[in-house]
Structures
1.
Amino acid sequence: MAPPLLALKDARLTFGGRPTFEGVSLALGRGDRACLVGRNGSGKSTLLRVLAGLIDLDAGERFQQPGSRVAYMPQEPLFDPTLTAAEFVAQGLSHDPHDGDRSHLIEAVLDEAEVAPDRLLANLSGGEGRRISLAAALVAEPDILLLDEPTNHLDIPAIEWLEERMLGFAGGILMVSHDRAFLNRLSRQMLWLDRGTMRRLDKGFPAFDEWSAAVLADEDAERRRIDKRIATEMVWLREGISGRRRRNEGRVTRLMQMRQERAQRVSLGTAKIGPASAESGGRIVIEAVDIDKSYATPSGSKTIARKFSTRILRGDRVGVIGRNGSGKTTLLGVLTGAIPPDAGTVRQGTNLMPAIFDQTRASLDPEATPWTTLAGESGDTVTVQGRPRHVASYLKDFLFEDRQFRAKISGLSGGERNRLLLAKILAQPSNLLILDEPTNDLDMETLDLLEEILADYDGTLLLVSHDRDFLDRLVTSVIAVEGDGVIDEYAGGYSDYLRQRRPAATRRTPSPVAAKPAARPRDASPGRLGFKEQRELDLLPKRIAELELEKKALAARLADPELYARSRTEFAAATSRHEQLDAELAEAEERWLALAEKAEALARGKV
């Protein structure tokens, strides 16, 4: 077995008199794909900083193979606003004068991250900051990559880019993330930091629930024999896992029924908007008909929506997705009446009581405490959906400890502040819940808690999120803001959206000017495709299957941790071919879908 490139042995660290962790040993080598899991405040980010050499241990050893390169991407990077993106990324390179000019490496990695090299680091969006920080970690082609919440603030295309980049990465990776889909695809080992101790499993994240449930069941049996105090520390986690499994089946069934109902009202591209009188009184929450929305930019104007229509009824759970900057938040503002459309009509239902989660957490006073935020300066109760609750009990529902009740909000982590804001929002009487990126900085347990609360919510939900697994578990339909005014709606969750999504060339692109009908090809006859197109349609499924098999075989080769060490040329060729296969598959699938839609239209006599 090859020696590790980075390791800890019997590591111990204490903050404020309390051990953050002790007796922690781990080793990382080339090709490792480990995920570090644990609840907020368990010390995951601190452990990454120790591994990066930024914090000294109180006891134990840190080992780094001489000559190896370790790169660290922090959860909340700090940027000097006077620097450009290129200057910041250059800090990730060594300063050895013998290395020569490496500006091409900086330009290449920033091009991958879709950031201009001369972009000043002032007024960065969360997504821009994350991509620049990733570029700085990747530029030196490190041997070990330490990633702390790398998908936070990234949109789905950027997350998928990062996944592909990590699949082709030759070194070892240790990642902290709450994104289940990201971990499911990438991880091959699990490290669980729980109450200061480390557990390891040589399986990927899909095995975590079963593994953790077994560990907790064993501890529960031991607890009954030895220590009753552990019960108070474990009850939230034990009940969260076992209770979730008991409830899962019924919730999934109910979600599927809701999606079927939603599908009856949504067609590809355009919601079915009929007369409002067709709906029973009080059922309509939002009805938008042919709305347009644009806004001015320094370079001209940006179109958010063009001729978009939808109808959202009571109890619908609608996910809103799209690239960062595509206009998702603006669309929410238009639908909820906060922003007027340029054209078209938007009507809200009667007696709406909206509650809004703002991802900037602007409504939280950093000098206040969780207790006073919910109950005021002198109170000890909070009214939750019309019922009184003791504030301590309610805070414990959101996984706060006694010592945090009176702590200043400014001292809470990002995930803890998000939990507090969710507790505040969900206590309000509401029948319309609007959540803008609620999952950033949340750990797995809090995500499970939030999922359960939202699954039991009786009102209507509008959810902006880039968490694909979270969307799949919750929403009944997806509104996709595709850019350039194109907005489509699809019944189901994110996976359903991927299956139904039309290629860019065939998506609805409304225009005030009617296009001239295309001339009919000479080899086509009414009611069917021409010979060449029909043969292409018949052969494409086989071609797609062949490409998928080749991609699967290639992925298995790239997963071999010894491939890079054995032959860099072979590794580079395999990586390049893997990228080509992605492009060829996308092209073949889009072509098949276009031909299939054309054949169906011809059969109906519409072409």
2.
Amino acid sequence: MYKVFLVEDEIVVREGIRNNILWEQYGFQYTGDAPDGELALPLIRQIQPDLLITDIKMPFMDGLSLIELVRRELPRAKIVIISGYDDFSYAQQAIRLGVDRYLLKPIMKEKMVELLIELHKKMEEERRQQEYLAQFQREAREYEVFSRRRFFEQLVTGGLSVSEICETAKTLGIDVNAPFYNIVLFSLSSAGYDGSTPESYTDALEALQDTIRQFIESRSDMILFNWNVTTYSVLVKGGEDSIESKTRECIDNIQRRCAEAGRDVSWHIACGSPVSRLSAIPACATEASRILSYRYLCPEEHILSEDCIRHLQKTGGTKSDTCKADINQECIRNFLSGGAAEEIDRFIDQLFQSAGEEAVSMPLFCRYLTLTVYYASDAYLNSIGCRADSYWSTELRPTDSASSPEEARQFARQIMTQAIRLRDSESKKQQRQLLSQAIAFIDSHYSEEAISLDRVARKVNISPNYFSAMFSQEVGQTFVEYLTNKRINEAKRMLRQTDKRSSEIAFSVGYKDPHYFSFVFKKVSGCTPSEYRKGSKL
């Protein structure tokens, strides 16, 4: 039922319209009336009618003044003017204000019923279009995530000018305006994830990602982005006096939710220092990334900070001494399981810094470092199914010749680069196998309305976040784009080669609502199914 509100100063006319129309029979609910605009306005704000019927000439506040206010606050409401004044100037103003109909008194019941039927049909069609658009946007949310991820990559790397940032953010519906900014990074992965395969689906990880996402999306001062497959970023916005407290609030909320997830999930959090310019966000993000990278040296220290790093460099342990950062195989294997090739030099620097200047200058330490890196890499590759001994060239085998810090650095860099290359090669191979399975599943189940990214990810046992990133990177389309194109292309084939009705074709390709099918078809193809069928037979 659509809500109706009437504003009319003549009581006889008001009661006649109220009592002589069977409102519900025509899909409307009569919710109230008032004798003038001034009394009507607070009631309209409370009721928020879908249809406003109002006179023009009234005491205190006339109809045109009321319409101007209502149109500003309820832009989707339909408005009908009734008046005894056949004055073209009123009609002109009514048109300017977006009035739907202009009726002259006396109001005949038949005319009012005819109008209600016409408006109800129009409102139903607009409602369906809004529902279709909302559904289309929900289904396209994955593409939005992909676009946001690409925008954020450009934002944190300095790939956009300030004007381009503002323009792109506006297009994506992202509000980046604030006096101050900060970046909070947090990594989430299944406990024991070794980086050699696409991350498996787990209920614990999905539940944690969902609860963090819901918290951040409920806040207008925080914006969530994907940093990479296992790391997320929050752009925190605030004033000079509030940015620190908002950053702490963000970290505390993520920490609490991660702690509640227990030992099934591995997690770490770091943040940068607040900045006052959009152009300074890349430096803030770099700082946060540098701090977060220390998680490989201290996996038990979940909240990483500059104080923690300084204590580590000074004592070889974290601020809380919950882990030790002496150079051992475990910390190197931690890095090999999750680190990227571009992070190798930074990680080696961290190893040297944690050991201290005095130790680094000793030839014995340099030889110890090279042996530790070699055996840690060898053990890691064997653990993921790579026969490491068959991949090491002569120059990558350990010797006693690395006696200087630079020689130790060079050897460690070569070994770790080779290990990560082999890890990524193994991961890519498994990615391609899983992607082939996923595409085969989509191609055989696209006609099912219930098919979704989550369902396909579960089928091939990959986390939805990992699957979304992998799919768009390898296929060049998001999951939703691929599924929609698959459905529409099959619909086009059926429109060309069969005599099935459009509604039958809609059901056949996964759309239970034929009207929504037509809406999507036109969005994708630029014409309706019937127009396409006519054109294909010309």
3.
Amino acid sequence: MKYLKENKFIILTIILLCGLMFIFINQKHGFHEDEIFSYGSSNYKYDNVYRWFGYAEANQDILYNQVLTGSVSNRINNLIKFAKDPNQFSKNETLAKEIPIFRAKEEALDYLAIQQEDIFNYFSVYHNQSRDVHPPLFYFLVHFISTIFYNQFSKYIIFIINLIFFIGTLICIKNIMEKLNRKNLTIPTMILYGASMGAISTVMFQRMYMMMTFFSILYLYYIIKFIKNNFKIEDNFFFTLTIICGFLTQYYFCIYIVLIFIILSVYLLFKKKFKNWFHFFKPHIIAAIIGITFYPFSIDDIFFSYRGLSGTDNKTNNFLENFQYYFEQIGKLFSVENFIIILLLVLAIILIYKISKKKLLKIEKKDFINLAVIIFPIILFIAIISKIAPFLGANYTSRYIMLLLPIIAIAVFYLLSFIFKKNLFIITLVISLILSVNGLVNNTPVYLYKDYEKVIKLANENKDKYFVYVFDNYFTHLSSMPEFMTYKESLILNNNIHDFKLLDNEKLNNENEFILCIKNWLNKEEVLNLVLENSKYESYEILLELDSDVESTYYKIKK
């Protein structure tokens, strides 16, 4: 009761920020393909991707008859082999011939939702992730929460997970500010981060990045505590557990903690605090051994995969362009254009004023160390991902810097605390409120896909019809899984001329009309001609054309 009374305004702030998240989750109507993958890879026992051909059952036969046999060590070795090359276990033609088939809406639901035989099937989750480039902890959690929503697909499954870790992140902000002796900055920092477009986007994005953000800032909390405690670790078990959990959530966590580890190691070794360094080193090496032993696929993922350090997808632009781009993204996520330029300019003006008044900054040694482990890893992290992170664009780039956002909020106000001694709470609260209100009024979080509501409405109006979906890769069709769960049956065509001949079949031709979706980046006129030439249908009508997040055009194909 005493704790609630002392922290009532902090608790009220957390409640209000969580309420804000509920407002935006109700505005989320569609999904990025990676978000749908989060559900499928967690809950589908056949595969981690929903295939448009008769692949799943053949894959399952191989998995249980040839791979998951014998001892646990034999199963793990076979999983490693299977992840690298599934074909070495079978010559099944279904795996080689990608012939599209009509998929029933029940099959689409089976991909996303927990079925009776799937409950607590964590080995399947582990296997699915062994074929991807991310560790499995987040997917274990999705699988667990999905059991509550038995046989249902709901955006609230991962939203619940994200909201829990969002609250955890806010609590970590509070604890860090207390360790920094800046308790009065807790609420302004919570608002600056929690009401930002970046935090809202992180919670809305149904991937592991909110979870990674929590473990990153929790690690920073233990580091600040370690410094304050004269470089002695009090919570060895929980510190080690934090590293293990962060490692098994997302590999970018490793980059962040390695940077802090190097900075502190240089300082401790330079000061000849060898005993302190060894106690600091020990939980890191123990966590690494446990993490790699539990998930040996991490070695290949980090160093040799297409997303790893040697990946070919990483060479998108030159380093300086990427570096600048990430800082621009940070500004946008805090609703401040030219974020770094404005920040440096304001700090420079204040510093000049202080010097002119002979009020130089007085920063103690521990404050310098705290500043070093808070600020330098932010800059170095951005530099590293500017070199190694794949893709550019709002739907990708923002995710790679999400873990930095609460740390940046802490860094900004911690720096200001050395400049302003009076009215610090009022100054920081005004700054956080102005930026938050500006963002909420003038900007929109990423990953809402509001226009997809029109697509679902169209699907419900035509749910008794067949649905033909045309795209040109192996993955982006996942964003349309809610449609595949709504139409009677769906035929997914990978823009292959030969596949369009499948439209001339008795099942489809017995109908007077069907719904066609063509992705906007394709030559739509060419696709329409192929559809009409290879079927018994003669005309079409445009039902819906969306250029925003959905990037699709919908037609009614008629006889």
